[in-house]
Structure formats: C-alpha cells, structure tokens
Amino acid sequence: MSSPMLQAVDLQCERDDRILFRGLDFSIVPGTVTRVEGPNGAGKTTLLRILAGLNDHFSGELLWLGERWQSQREAFLRNLLYLGHRPGIKPLLTPLENLRALTAVRRPVSDQAMKQALDGTGLQGYYDVPCRNLSAGQQRRVALARLLIADEPLWLLDEPFTALDRHGVAGLEQLLLDHAASGGAAVVTTHHELALPGMARITLGASPAGETPS
Ligand SMILES: Nc1ncnc2c1ncn2[C@@H]1O[C@H](COP(=O)(O)OP(=O)(O)OP(=O)(O)O)[C@@H](O)[C@H]1O
Predict the structure, then answer these.
(1) ipTM for the whole complex
(2) Helix (H) or strand (E) holding 20
(3) Residue 55 Cα: closest atom of ligand 1
(4) In this structure, what DSSP letter does residue 72 have?
(5) Three-class secondary structure of residue 148 per DSSP
(6) How far apart are CA 26 and CA 47, in angstroms?
(7) Is any atom of ligand 1 closer than 6 Å to the C-beta of 24?
C-alpha cells in the first residue's frame, strides 16, 4: 500500500463543552475515497475543516507526507482542494466567471478547459447565465466543475451530493472513482448512501448529543 498523504493522530475536538470526537486516528492514502459519516452534529464538517486547515480548535497531530502539517503548510495547502457544504459560488457571476475566479488563485486554466468542465457537469448552454438564475442542483454543478479541472491530489468535499439529481450523483461517484484510480484521494462527508468499491470510512458520534468531557 502507498504511504499516507495525510495522517491524523489522536485528534480531539471539543465544542461548547461537548467532545465531538477524541482519539481519532486515520490515514488518507493515495488511490482511496474515504467517507466521513455520522448523524447531524457529529462533527463531520468540523473534521473536514480541521483537515483543510480552516479550523484550529483541536488537539492531536496532522501529518502531511509524514511531516507535521505546520511545517508543511504551504505544500499541504497547494495540494488540497476543499469544497464546503455550500456551493461557494458568486450569484451575480456566470458559471464561467465563477470558475475563472475559483481557479485564478491556483494556476491559469483556459476558457476552453473551463467550458469542457462545465459540459462535464451538464451545464452546456449555461456558461453565461448568472448563477442566481440557476437551480440549486445547477449551482452545485458549477462548484463541482472545479473538480474536473483540478490538479490537486487531495480533495476534501463537504456534502458534495446535496441537490444533485440521480445522474449528477452517478457522475460525481464516477469522478471520485476516477480521481482515486489516478492516484488521488478524496475525503467526503455525505448523508447520501455512498458505497464505492474499496471505500474507507471514518465514523463519528454514535449519538448526536455527543459525549460530555470528563
Ligand atoms: N464555530 C462553532 N462554534 C461553536 N460550535 C460549533 C461551531 N461549528 C460547529 N459547532 C458545533 O459543532 C457540532 C458539530 O457541527 P458540524 O457542523 O461539524 O456537524 P456535522 O456532523 O457536519 O452535522 P450535519 O450532518 O448536520 O451537517 C454542532 O453541535 C455545532 O453546533
């Protein structure tokens, strides 16, 4: 098996005097999809934001390629693509303008490649429509088009199946499988019954009420 990209060692997170999780150890290995599962409030979004470097309310260690995350911050952030549970797109911009804005901070991507990515998520014919005029599922597809032009090996996706129809779900499942087959890794929170071949699982919070700190 390949060496882990990302490792969590003894992670603990407490919120408002409730322990969301503790003693959490796992490895994210190239070529895998990992599902983070658990009831509402179990801490799935919180965990994903910790992994993305967006939340430092935790104890324990995160290792990127075997080194402490803090010493590898720049390399780590360059290699990770995080999509939050909201589509995170600007309603006044078109799908094409949103993709330009989302990719500009990373690397140049041609309009042709962006149009192909939008086609890949079923948005052909919607390149120039302001996103506020798109449906919830179409807005989600704009955000997911980012994955089709991603070169980041680690994807952290929070509820990416939200608002997708059956074809959208199947397309995203295939995208995750293709990403893993090409040596990438994805960590996905979802309430959708995701069960991909070889999928790993991180299960949080048997009880939505969480534990009381001792
Ligand atoms: N910034 C914050 N400050 C205080 N508490 C927070 C904060 N963010 C989240 N929480 C609390 O942490 C708990 C876990 O929230 P989180 O969003 O991670 O759960 P989740 O498993 O993703 O839930 P869902 O399935 O409903 O999306 C919740 O009880 C929430 O109120």
Answers:
(1) 0.95
(2) strand 18-28
(3) 1
(4) G
(5) helix
(6) 12
(7) no
